[in-house]
Design a protein that fits this description.
Elements: E1 2-7, E2 12-17, H1 22-31, E3 39-42, H2 48-60, E4 63-67, E5 70-74, H3 85-88, H4 96-105, E6 107-111, H5 124-132, E7 136-140, E8 143-147, E9 155-157, H6 163-173, E10 179-183, H7 189-201, E11 204-206, E12 212-216, E13 224-227, H8 232-245, E14 246-252, H9 260-269, E15 273-275, E16 279-282, E17 292-294, H10 303-313, E18 318-323, H11 334-339, E19 343-347, E20 350-355, E21 363-365, H12 369-381, E22 385-389, H13 392-395, H14 401-407, E23 411-416
Parallel strand pairs: 2-14, 3-13, 9-10, 17-18, 21-22
Antiparallel strand pairs: 1-22, 1-23, 3-5, 4-5, 6-8, 7-8, 10-12, 11-12, 14-16, 15-16, 18-20, 19-20
Helix pairs in contact: 1-2, 1-4, 1-7, 4-6, 5-6, 6-7, 8-10, 8-12, 10-12
The chain binds uridine-diphosphate-2(N-acetylglucosaminyl) butyric acid.
């Protein structure tokens, strides 16, 4: 087990370079097996979630070469084997092998995925989409068998604009016979990134990034080279950190439009942001005003940033509120922030943060990935030492976090315990 120790209260200055997007990379890696030729993906973050997917690729018999942030995947000799629970449960995104293997072989057998415990997180919309394409879904002992004699394009309306269901249905539909239309599709930038990879491989997908995606099935998908977009959640996390303890902290290699919902809220709070074409420079300001935030699907305020934003709101004067509308259980960081000196109550999926309060370091637990990010920001804002356990959650999503923070002047260290 690992422990992250932070000596807080330091001003952070310098540049943090943002890595490739976790939530894109984790879909692009499974998507690559749809190709009958070599697929090269660059700017892949070196995090445990991408490692776990490469393990699944190797288990299936794909040849995977990884050098620094580039992965070359050759799926010519893969075997459509059942993906065991031990591998599937390592992360949420293992479920993209459902769409990819179904699309390629018309059959897939695998257990339920893992991932952060932030709500029920059913996969009914994924399965309904597969069924609409003509597949039969059977569930035995939490293991799903999804199979079809033939996949046929169809019109699919998603009851909720789910990121995972939109991507999984695209993966299953790219080689189906005829046209598939996904309505009320998710519009996140990661969806566009996956559709671009598939189109580079020879797929015919239009409308990704809008709520209606049209997929004309093709027979063959080939070689391609593709780049993962910058991680908008990692970018947002460090911009929040800059507003909390930065002194001209530059968050570099980002697409600022992807985090407009965050930057406009920070400006409303009183933050001053220098927003360039691919960077944001931010410094801590005095006298932040309280704000109200409601999480929504893209381009709304991302649920993945509400936990990292919370410690910053302890520095605002008055009552800030965060309403979480995507997940039922994404407030597990709150008791730990309160133990550090915050004054936060949670009622009806809304946290009310009363500030300003002073944070003091103590022993806390990262219950999930973004709760962990929230505690890292709190630890860097706090006086004294914060010790975070369950750091494994944080390492699933933030590449080289210790090096990146150390380079801008933070006192952080990871130790085995
Ligand atoms: N939902 C259903 N049925 C489904 C699918 C989703 O009811 O079949 C519900 C979920 O329970 C949830 C909501 O719809 O309440 C949103 O789920 P969505 O499918 O959009 O999320 P996801 O694909 O499981 C991805 C990211 C999450 C991110 C969400 C929302 C990956 C691997 N995960 O999850 O990222 O919060 O989209 O943007 O891409 C994170 O990075 O910390 C993280 C949790």
């Amino acid at each position: 087990m690992k422990l992250l120790e932070i000596n807080g209260g330091k001003k952070l200055t310098g540049t943090i370079r943002v890595s490739g997007a976790k939530n894109s990379a984790v879909a692009l890696i499974p998507a690559a097996i749809l190709s009958d030729e070599e697929v090269t993906i660059c700017n892949v973050p070196d995090i445990t979630d991408t490692e776990a997917l490469c393990e699944i690729l190797s288990f299936l018999g794909a040849r995977v070469k990884r050098a620094s942030e580039t992965i070359v995947i050759d799926s010519k000799e893969i075997e459509n084997k059942e993906i065991p629970a031990t591998l599937a449960k390592k992360l949420r995104a293992s479920y993209y092998f459902m769409g990819a293997l179904l699309g390629k072989y018309k059959k897939v057998t695998m257990s339920l995925p893992g991932g952060c415990s932030i709500g029920a997180r059913p996969i009914n919309l994924h399965l309904k989409g597969f069924e609409a394409l003509g597949a039969k879904v059977t569930n035995k002992d939490n293991c799903y068998i999804v199979e079809a004699d033939e996949l046929r394009g169809n019109n699919i309306y998603l009851d909720f604009a789910s990121v995972g269901a939109t991507i999984n249905i695209m993966l299953a539909a790219v080689k189906a016979k005829g046209k598939t239309i996904i309505d009320n599709a998710a519009k996140e930038p990661e969806i566009v990134n996956v559709a671009t990879l598939l189109n580079n491989m020879g797929a015919k997908i239009r409308g990704a990034g809008t709520s209606s995606i049209e997929i004309e099935g093709v027979d063959y998908l080939g070689k391609c080279f593709h780049e993962v977009i910058p991680d908008r959640i990692e970018a947002g996390t460090y911009v929040i950190l800059g507003a909390a303890v930065g002194e001209n902290l530059k968050v570099d290699n980002i697409i600022p439009e992807h985090i407009e919902s965050l930057t406009s809220k920070l400006e409303e709070m009183g933050a001053f942001l220098d927003i360039g074409s691919d960077y944001i420079i931010v410094s801590r300001q005095d006298n932040y005003k309280s704000i109200h935030v409601k999480t929504q699907t893209y381009p709304g305020f991302p649920t993945d940033l509400q936990q990292p934003l919370t410690p910053l709101l302890t520095a605002c004067k008055g009552q800030s509120k965060i309403e979480e509308t995507i997940y039922e259980n994404r407030f597990m960081h709150i008791p730990y922030l309160n133990s550090m000196g915050a004054d936060i109550r949670v009622k009806n999926q809304t946290s009310t943060i009363v500030g300003p309060t002073k944070l003091t370091g103590c022993d806390v637990v990262a219950t999930d990935l973004r709760a962990g990010a929230s505690l890292v920001i709190a630890g860097l804002m706090a006086e004294g030492t914060t010790k975070i356990t369950n750091v494994e959650h944080i390492l699933r999503g933030y590449e080289n976090i210790v090096e990146k923070l150390t380079n801008v002047g933070a006192k952080v260290e990871i130790r085995e315990i």
